[in-house]
Protein 1
Amino acid sequence: MKRIAIFASGTGSNAKKIIEYFQESEDMEIALIVSNRAKAGVLTIAEEEEIPSIIIDRAYFYESEQMLFDLKQQCIDFIVLAGFLWLVPKYLINAYPKKIVNIHPALLPKFGGKGMYGMHVHQAVIDAAEKQSGISIHFVNEAFDEGGIIFQASCAVDSDDTAKDVQAKVQKLEHEHFPHIIEEVIGNTFSQL
Ligand code: GRF
């Protein structure tokens, strides 16, 4: 059984979809939820699903290697970022090479980087009069949104779309694709070892 940790700090709609998806799996399970916001919706979901969770702060995450200790203690094999906005420190990247993935709500390399999250991304897409947007699932390295891209899916941006409209279209793609792509990546990662 491969054990997955989800790092999420937002409403957790992706985390919820991922948890639901892996409930049926015999090879992979969501074993831990990590959040840097005590009020994150994802923590309620974790409680409902009886998945252990950890609330972290900056000192814990950046000034010690306690995060790694806790992940190892929970025997975590793979990390999924689903709405986690902090840069992942080097000690974690080194400990989980190509075993951390993130989802970004736009077609990278466009509209990525620091400050490009949530509605800022969708507004930037509208302001640039893009004809399409979408999702990018990528490996995580030490820079924001710059690790190797694993998968992208796109949606049309219509001329009268607002940022909220784009967000809804992108979220639909996220929920549809993120769980099965995670499953595929984990399958590939561990079959090569
Ligand atoms: C998603 O749009 C994801 O692409 C981004 O953060 C958002 C998280 O949304 N990285 P939710 O908390 O899963 O609803």
Protein 2
Amino acid sequence: MNHPRIQRAPLRTASIVGLGSYVPERVMTNADLERMVETSDEWITTRTGIRERRIAGASETTSDMALEAARRAMTAAGVTAGDIDLIIVATITPDMPFPSTACLVQQKLGADRAVAFDIEAACSGFVYALDIGARFVEAGAHETVLIIGAEKMSSVVDWTDRNTCVLFGDGAGAAVLKHRPGARGLLTASLGSDGSKAGLLELPGGGSACPATAESVAGRRHFLRMDGKETFKNAVQAMVSASNEVLERCGLSIDQIRCVIPHQANQRILSAVGERLGATAEQVFVNVDRYGNTSAASVGIAMDEAVREGRIRRGDLVLLVVFGAGLTWGAAVLEW
Ligand code: UT7
């Protein structure tokens, strides 16, 4: 499943110079879900580790959450809207099929000079956006790049399906990428995809294959569906192998990594990946208990919290690892 990639040796390095995140105010607890579907706090906690998740307001859009995370990342980075050359938004819950959410964020930010586009790699979106954005910086094509993972998963969750509705939450994470002289920044990244398993996790309706009709709505085809067990197995395997690949490329062992930031899908996946990598529980950052699975937003939110909590300090090596629908996966090593 892995493809050889050339080790990064750019003339200019790309660093994350500011992080920001946003989660909506409304908390939905497992007790709230017990009143909606046939489930229990005990089942959700033991099978997933999730205790609560955030749910966006009815009129709060993905671009609104992206904007707030972006503003916080820009403040942390000390850059203004006029400095941004490129905006990449990773999302599977855009405000609308088109225009892109990135263009809507550009307008809301007033980042008039920026080129803006979306990418879609589901829960792997943040690391995909990081790799793409860093390449523009390394190539000298753009000076200041804003990447955002943002999702309103509550808008595509089937609130009558207990298999999936307990898992997801809303939010956004953002990072500003620039060349920081003297810093190594992103050391390497590896992305992978396997479209032969597209059916494991999908939202079948609303595109050209199944345009919206009264029947498609009645058939609940505009909600996400997942084969949880198969997705789980593929997630653990792909996340471990992508992590090992990037560590090997950098000549690093897991004990040299200060903090592992995995996509927050399920505590059992985080534990299995951590164990197989030989990481201690202290090395693996977890916030799935508070936010559930926020898809493309999860790694951005987690990394921002890890930095603010002092779990990552300047010069530390960080491993990011993600997995999502597509299938897609990826891992990256960076020096903070
Ligand atoms: O972000 C992209 C990646 N996403 C993931 O990686 C998610 C991966 N999958 C998972 O996290 C897990 O597979 C789940 C949490 C979704 C499910 O856990 P599981 O241990 O694989 O449970 P299961 O699907 O095998 O279901 C076990 C039982 C079933 O009942 P029966 O058939 O054994 O009678 C389900 O109907 O649990 C039942 N069940 C529930 N019971 C109470 C499923 N959902 C619920 C629920 N509450 N919410």
